[in-house]
Amino acid sequence: MDAFLLQTLNGLDKGSAYALIALGLTLIFGTLGVVNFAHGALFMIGAFCSVTLQRILNLSYETVDPSKTDFLGNPLKVKTPYVESWFGPETGGAIIEWSVPLAIIFAIPVMLAIGFSMERGLIKHFYKRPHADQILVTFGLAIVLQEIIKYYYGANPIQTPAPEALSGVAQLAEGIVYPVWRIVYFFFAIAIIGAVFAFLQFTTFGMVVRAGMADRETVGLLGIDIDKRFTLMFGLAASVAGLAGVMYGPINAPNYHMGMDFLVLSFVVVVVGGMGSLPGAVLAGFLLGILESFASMKEVITLIPGINQIIIYLVAIVILLTRPRGLMGRKGVME
Q1: Membrane-spanning residues where (predicted)?
Q2: CATH number for the domain including 232?
């Protein structure tokens, strides 16, 4: 029972990342009809937003501290972060320590700007082109973004630690402990998913977007600038992917290829859930995350070596053979 609980928690942890990325992918495909292979790169850029903010907050100046000397008796130079000099050692230190959660505020405008730039500068020219063209151009864009990150930040993973208060483990039951930050990430994912669904379901903007997803031409004939709203949805989808990356940094240190690591799996999640189905993307994300977690158990790997590497694809094959539209796919999408 303990192993079952731990593997379920691990699955929900992985599923949270899958669900958030797949949600953004489905938003883009459902509104714009674009197969965006650069979406994993947006997840990566979000993770590096936290790295960037961490470096900004740690910018320091040197002062001579006469109370500290080296072995020759010379006063030592001490680096003091500007944040600590502005807000005081305690407040400044707390700001630096909580740089990852604070990066959420930093990442939202950055990801919105990147999303708008991608859609207006490149994606809009491929709306009526075949999906193969969309895949090629967005995959090429993903490689370019990946190489830019590699050039400026290097090839090695960069640690973005969680705040000390959230970096320990929580005792869930007798003899069962689990990292606090992974629990925080799960609830963060649930909050973001809930906010997106509430926005689409209960706001006038969201209702128009949903109507446009169902019948774009009719909504346009009503005098509504649906293209502008869809551009905003691209920015929203980019922000969802970016926020998923920001909070994932303490779990997996940001590196330039992390977007590609999640990209293929996220597309499998979208296809399994059903192209164009937002609930399907979320359901499939958590389902496949849990299955992958259980397939990684030592007992399972011993019985079927390598099953943890292919379990998601096997499940995808079975589901698509029995339900060609996916779990909750809409009729007419990608047919």
Answers
A1: 15-35, 42-61, 95-114, 183-209, 230-251, 263-288, 300-321
A2: 1.10.3470
